[in-house]
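User: quick one
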Amino acid sequence: MTQKARSREERGTGRAGDGVRRTTGNVTLSDVARLAGVSIATASKALNGRDQVRAETRERVLDAAERLSFRPNPLARGLLAGATGTVGLLTGDLEGRFSLPILMGAEDAFGAGELSVFLCDARGDAIRERHHVRALLDRRVDGLIVVGSSTDPRPSLGRDLPVPVVYAYAPSEDPADLSFVPDNVAAGRMAVEHLLACGRTRIAHIAGDAGYAATTDRIAGIAAALAEAGLEPAAPCRTGAWSESWGRAGTAMLLDQGAEPDGLVCGNDQLARGALDSLRDRGLRVPDDVAVVGFDNWQVMTEGCRPMLTSLDMNLEQLGRDAATALAQAIADGGTLAGGVRAQPARLVVRGSSVPLT
Amino acid sequence: MTQKARSREERGTGRAGDGVRRTTGNVTLSDVARLAGVSIATASKALNGRDQVRAETRERVLDAAERLSFRPNPLARGLLAGATGTVGLLTGDLEGRFSLPILMGAEDAFGAGELSVFLCDARGDAIRERHHVRALLDRRVDGLIVVGSSTDPRPSLGRDLPVPVVYAYAPSEDPADLSFVPDNVAAGRMAVEHLLACGRTRIAHIAGDAGYAATTDRIAGIAAALAEAGLEPAAPCRTGAWSESWGRAGTAMLLDQGAEPDGLVCGNDQLARGALDSLRDRGLRVPDDVAVVGFDNWQVMTEGCRPMLTSLDMNLEQLGRDAATALAQAIADGGTLAGGVRAQPARLVVRGSSVPLT
DNA sequence: ATGAAAGCGCTAACAA
DNA sequence: TTGTTAGCGCTTTCAT
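Assistant: Done. Structure below.
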């Protein structure tokens, strides 16, 4: 008795009542062929829409397949074709909240088609990542999508992989790779432009962790937009951490040193919430005295506070969708992928924390 | 020419029979055998540690495999063995923040072993779920783990699947299935017991959305613990939504109606933050006048506010790990799984919002 | 239009 | 100890 047969039988007896014949996954093409009274080859052709089958025969085969609820075995198919209809999704941190929307977008884009997603979490560990890449390649995935945990460039998987690869959120260090990243510079500009549109002119910025590209990019965009408007920042930009507590502290410092901003850009939504607290502590009203804008549009943050927060949504789900779509395209096309970095524009979501001055 | 392109070309020309079909990463066992000067079967035995090979021969085969960086093709192996070393992870909402830690835990537990995870998001849609289950089964996964988006029981996938299934977070409606859920009743008790230990006796509860089992379970636990202590609630329990805004409103109502709690249990961390706001608005100090406890221990919530929030961590990552481990076990055992519901105990994390009365 | 046969890469009886 | 043979389920020539 083969292992296969044994395992089936065990499963069969292991669960439901024994009269129940479990057909799922056990019906083979040859069963269908036999029932339809044709050869295996013909059955295959009929099922796959090859045009060398008489209509009536095809009908019979289709019918037989239906009756047996035949499902082709992708392993067998893959073994032959070399393609598995599978992509690997290598994530840096399942923990972080940025990989999630991206993951959703990707899953979404694939889900529509015929591709399934293998999930691997490398925990930011290079060793583990290598291990997973190998495992994925062993499983003959048709492509790879690498999701980073920050927007800082990350090492490339290399140019000589047997399948196409796209990078999302964290771009590859190799410009020959294709990367999808949020456009933080443009988002920084948008934040300032929105405040300007609200009639604010004394604009300050409380930034996040200085060690992140997201921070420096946003700072750059903000500085550029201010410069173009011919304005000086209302206070020197301060970096700190990605926390509410730094948002409070940074804002307090700013005010202590005599800055009188009427517009405040905060490196992310948590910082913005912290800022809201400090502003209120000082008796400053938002948005009347100071308009506040955050980044990321993290809903529980932006909509949990009073007033609700205006924020720049980085459109991560769309980013994930785009990355996945590009990968699917490359797979379909035969594996060639133009390199470069595609920047995903942000989207301004206006809420109560910023209104035009009247 | 990329390797991928080369491999396609070969495929395109069909199996012209003659020749060198060498795609990097596609070294086959027969290549190894040839280089080692043995038969394919012997090579297989040697590589798989069968004890019918002379040590020296094995050495030679291993060496050849090494030199060619041979990686066995799991598809071929799976085709033969019927097992794929793969499990399907069906999630209700990738969006929600509860599936994440569970997913991490599961990925973690599997990652150690040899199982890979297929990710599918059904978006809470039954049709899509069916589709995914079929796709997963087609791919011959060895098991399924179903992650829900709330703790409310969900329909079973059925008893007659060809592979073992475990449910996480949302239990299956069928008691014959194996489900892993957080123990919200016990967590409710723990919240009250903690407040009692802090010397609080006038305890009130602002609950979350009444439509969730998590809400009613926590309410039940809280009520039971109060009853055991011989106490009445300081105010009737109110349900609302899982939002900060309801936390604020609910607390305000409570105080407006003359309740004077010295301990407040909030249905989750967001509610607790809202409560903090309202208490401060009324000039009540936390934790001196009122101690506050939340649920979920969502770090950005609990550590973003002043004072930081005491909360009950539902240990979801552990829950995911347990579910995955049980599934792996069942797969190894041959598919049998004891039914039932396993409750994951919560863990109290004390922070500034609750201290003993002095 | 149909079928016989040859594999895809691997494992495991069974011979030698 | 080693090799031969027979598949796993499927697709694709290449006859018929």
